[in-house]
Amino acid sequence: MTEKVIYVMYDDEEVLKDGAKTLVSKGIKIADVFSPFPIHGIDPIIGVKNTRLGIMAFLYGLTGLMLATVGMRFFMVTDWPMNIGGKPNFSYLENMLAFVPVTFEFTVLCAAHGMVITYLLANKTLPGMPAHNPDPRTTDDRFVMEIRLSDNHQSSENEIDELLKNTGFVEIDKKEVN
Amino acid sequence: MQKEAAIREPLILGHKSYHDVTEDVCRPIEDKAPRMWYVLFGIALIIALYGIGCIVYLLGTGIGVWGLNKTIGWAWDITNFVWWVGIGHAGTLISAVLLLFRQKWRMAINRSAEAMTIFAVFMAGLFPLIHMGRLWVGYWVLPLPNQFGSLWVNFNSPLLWDVFAISTYLSVSLVFWYIGLIPDFATIRDRAKKPVSKKMYSILSFGWSGGAKNWNRFETVSLVLAGLATPLVFSVHSIVSFDFATSIVPGWHTTIFPPYFVAGAVFSGFAMVQTLMLVMRKAMGLEAYIHTKHVEYMNIVIMVTGSIVGTAYITELFISWYSGVEYEAYAFLNRATGPYWWAYWSMMTCNVISPQLMWIRKLRRSLLFTFFISIVVNIGMWFERYVIIVTSIHRDYLPSAWSMHYPSHIDIGVYIGTIGIFFVFFLLFARYFPVLALNEIKTILKGSGQSYKEAPDYHKHH
Questions:
Q1: Which of A150, B20, B408, B425 is the most exposed place for a label (fewest CB within 10 A)?
Q2: Is residue B405 a contact partner of residue B390, using CB atoms and an 8 Å limit?
């Protein structure tokens, strides 16, 4: 099933933001905004929720911390205790100070890589993935607002066009997409 | 958009639009490489190949081809290792620590400094691997199940901490760098005309589209990675210093080592950034983005960290006397007046005196002087590691075992070779990758761009 999508292009992020505010206040839903750099303050206007990747990073870090602790306890205490300069080799806690650096590094390793892998998957950005920005100029100096008619049953196409007129766009493009 | 004080110098000079920023950064990638690039690349490649030849010869023969002896079991290899790791500290410091402190000037240099970091850490990692002698059993440093008992690696050893620190640092810096590169690769992809480069950059850009949610995630990931990388930067060189500090060799087992090594790492890293940036901005026509103010900021960092290093040297000296341990005292006396006095005093001159010249505004804003000092600092920092390592062990408790270290041509070849390999990577980076963080530069254009700052309505509220 194809649906009609309106792409409205701006050449300034502030103009786009003001336009988006007007549209949203009139009850229009904006599906997405494509921009060459993060536009600060656009997310609450178009209703993009803040990402929970930070929480994920914390959980991955916790996993790393646990793995490092369990692993080193097994290697150094349970499986093959070694006498190293007479350090206590029968207890993890008493020898814990020596394990701090590796614990820390492994926590960071798991938190960073876990988060980055999740980020790439969530964003669907992986080697060989197709890009779906509507215009190649959106990675250069243009800002595009995407409005799907299927999201806005309450307004007709003409009504949306009428609203867009005063937002100071530079180009408008309508496409049938799947 | 954020406004900044009017008296603050603009970070982007000239009358640039968003499109101009894209043009300025992408043009060197899209145009044919200048002849000078090929000349430099050729020289670097020859040096790199010579270095690789030396490494191959060494691996085939054994590390006896180095100038080591029974007393001095660590010399140039570990010196080079610490030197390169130190250099590799500027990139992540610039991109992570300065991001947390909201220092916008970092945006001009973070991309290339991070690239430099990764290549430098890569060079550093080579040395411990080579020093194993039997490179093919390098995987023994990992805690893998094995049939020796099963005998695990020693988690009490700072050398093993180093394995974890360096590999974490390298891989985290690499993904941090690449996450930032993805949107910029998308810019190049969308401009590319030739099918091959379009294909290449679309693979590299991972299908980045730049939607609002993408950017939302991007900013969070950058911030959290910065938060993770900041303690990581400090931990890595602290752990490198533990290699020495946890030993019982006089001159090595000092508690001042971790902060002193970290400051030294930042010091030498920024010096290397200066060396590379001053050439790059000229060669690639990026004077509008990396200008005198940026150089001045970096010089201030060099001055501050140089002063910390100088303080550490003097503290060390004082403590060696104040401790009342005669071996400790002798180790330092021997550094300054023994057979390696020339190394000690070149270190002192390069690292303590030369950064103090940066107090003079005229000098720290002079590009030529900065370039000269950046080379001096890098030489000084190499000598620092040489002094710490070689002079501390060349005269131990037993005078009959006293010895000197004379580098063999393989020692020199491997070291020079890594500089060649480093430059091969860096030149490839400068040729094919966006050397400025396009997406970040564009976010500060309106706040810190000259034409915007000088516009009459800049300080009016909307």
A1: A150
A2: yes
Query: Which residues of chain B neighbour A87 with C-beta distances below 8 Å?
Result: 156
| B125, containing H or E segment | helix B110-131
Residues B19, A140: C-beta atoms closer than 8 Å: yes
Query: Alpha carbon of B278 to those of A42, B13, B265, B281, B283: distances in Å?
Result: 37, 16, 20, 6, 9
Q: Which pLDDT score is estimated for B23?
A: 85
The verdict on a CB contact (< 8 Å) between A116 and B225 is: yes
**CB of A32 less than 8 A from some CB of B:** yes
Per-domain boundaries in chain A: 3-50+132-177, 53-123
pLDDT, tens digit, 9 for 90 and up, residues A22-66: 888 888 888 888 888 888 888 888 888 888 998 999 999 999 999
Are the beta carbons of B221 and A101 separated by less than 8 Å?
no
CA distance B28 to B30: 6
Domains in chain B with CATH codes: 18-135+153-453 (1.20.1630.10)
Give the CATH class of A3-50+132-177.
alpha beta
Residue of A nearest to B153 (CA): A75
Each residue's pLDDT tens digit, B27-57 = 888 888 888 889 999 999 999 999 999 999 9
